[in-house]
């Protein structure tokens, strides 16, 4: 008896993506942004120092990434969606629509990380009602940039509603990473292809091109089951690795060119 062939779930997805790519390859404007190109690039100017702890950092040793992660960028857009007065249901739907969207990052051409020890006040390991906080020190890193950010969203994995929301919300994104890492919106454009000046996932099914200077970092992104109920800052639920949050080895087009006791300098060329 002949076995029934399992349905190929990838084929409809690939067909849908191919049809969407064909639409986006036309010069017709999508959400008011002229084409062609399936990459929507939002550009920002850093206006303050940047910091985003690596996932393994502790509260006392705050090592920072040199670039924001796709997870932090998507959450910044969802946070801005609330401030842009989208309804709770629209924000939840917006977050779900970002789950399968690939995000690439073009960092500024130069980045300098300061290595600093600062005085902090923290709760003691043994609670004392007479001394709720004690003096301590902590290691902190912050990044100063020269140049602008480019955040590219793959519109081929979404519909026109996603594109319209990204374009509408992009000007409302005011900071990325640690609160206070302010940025200023510059504009949006579309591109058919991205160069090696953008980040590239190592596990990508497509071949990657090594930029002139680079390092590899582990960046997080939404997992397939990511939703607002679990990722909200106000919930007690914990996101599960590979379900709500996944980690990808990524080529970052910034290479270490100089270092000292108090700083590390990265450049793209």
Short recap of the structure:
This protein is α+β, with helices and mostly antiparallel strands. Helix content is 20%, strand content 31%.
Q: Give the topology string: H per helix, E per strand.
A: HEEHHEEEEHEEEHEEE
- Mean pLDDT comes to 90
Query: Can you summarize the main beta sheet?
Result: 5 strands, mixed
What would you report as the Rg, rounded to the nearest angstrom? 21 Å
Measured distance between first and last alpha carbons = 63 Å
Q: What general form does the structure show?
A: globular
Produce the secondary structure layout.
Blueprint: H1 10-24, E1 39-46, E2 61-62, H2 70-83, H3 88-98, E3 103-106, E4 110-122, E5 134-146, E6 149-154, H4 160-169, E7 183-191, E8 200-201, E9 215-222, H5 228-231, E10 245-252, E11 255-259, E12 263-267
Parallel strand pairs: 2-5
Antiparallel strand pairs: 1-6, 1-7, 3-6, 4-5, 4-12, 8-10, 9-10, 11-12
Helix pairs in contact: 2-3
Question: Your description of this structure?
Answer:
It is built from five helices and twelve strands. By secondary structure, the chain is of the alpha+beta class. It has a five-stranded mixed beta sheet, with no helix packed on it. It has a four-stranded antiparallel beta sheet with strand order 3-6-1-7, with no helix packed on it. A hairpin with a 3-residue loop joins β11 (255-259) and β12. α2 (70-83) runs antiparallel to α3 (88-98). It is globular and about 65 Å long.
